[in-house]
Amino acid sequence: MKRGNTARVADFIQQKTNADTYEIVPKKAYPKSYDRTTQVAQREQNQNARPAIKGKLPDVSKYDTVFIGGPIWWGEYPMVVRTFLDKENGLNGKTLISFTTNEGSGLGNTRQVLKKQFPKSKVRQGFTATGNTVKNNPNRVRSQVNSWLDDLGY
């Protein structure tokens, strides 16, 4: 199965940190077409929707730090990631670190979202790369991820 851009960045983080991983998968899959996916994502965002997540959520209580990744669509995490954040009350008080892929929005509002939703958490500097760079130059992105993680003390 083809790995998406954000999943590939998650893989790089996991390889460097030996972290456990959990993939947020929507119960109803997004369309295969990029254009159709962006239409669905825009509609979900306009409706402030919280799409259902497929499968059981992880128990985050045993972790001090949680990396939270996603593509950035119109400056925002996908709404299915917001579903995860809404359901994971155990994130408050943890160290939270965002990572994203985008085509121009950078980290979007991820830092603000995490700080507002989890005021007792420490939100550290996130990482972002364009999806095209991940796709076309993964070794460069892996190197950037490793440097970022080195700077964070990993």
From TrEMBL:
<protein>
    <recommendedName>
        <fullName>Flavodoxin-like domain-containing protein</fullName>
    </recommendedName>
</protein>
<feature type="domain" description="Flavodoxin-like">
    <location>
        <begin position="4"/>
        <end position="135"/>
    </location>
</feature>
<dbReference type="InterPro" id="IPR029039">
    <property type="entry name" value="Flavoprotein-like_sf"/>
</dbReference>
<dbReference type="Pfam" id="PF12682">
    <property type="entry name" value="Flavodoxin_4"/>
</dbReference>
<dbReference type="GO" id="GO:0010181">
    <property type="term" value="F:FMN binding"/>
</dbReference>
<dbReference type="GO" id="GO:0016651">
    <property type="term" value="F:oxidoreductase activity, acting on NAD(P)H"/>
</dbReference>
<dbReference type="InterPro" id="IPR008254">
    <property type="entry name" value="Flavodoxin/NO_synth"/>
</dbReference>
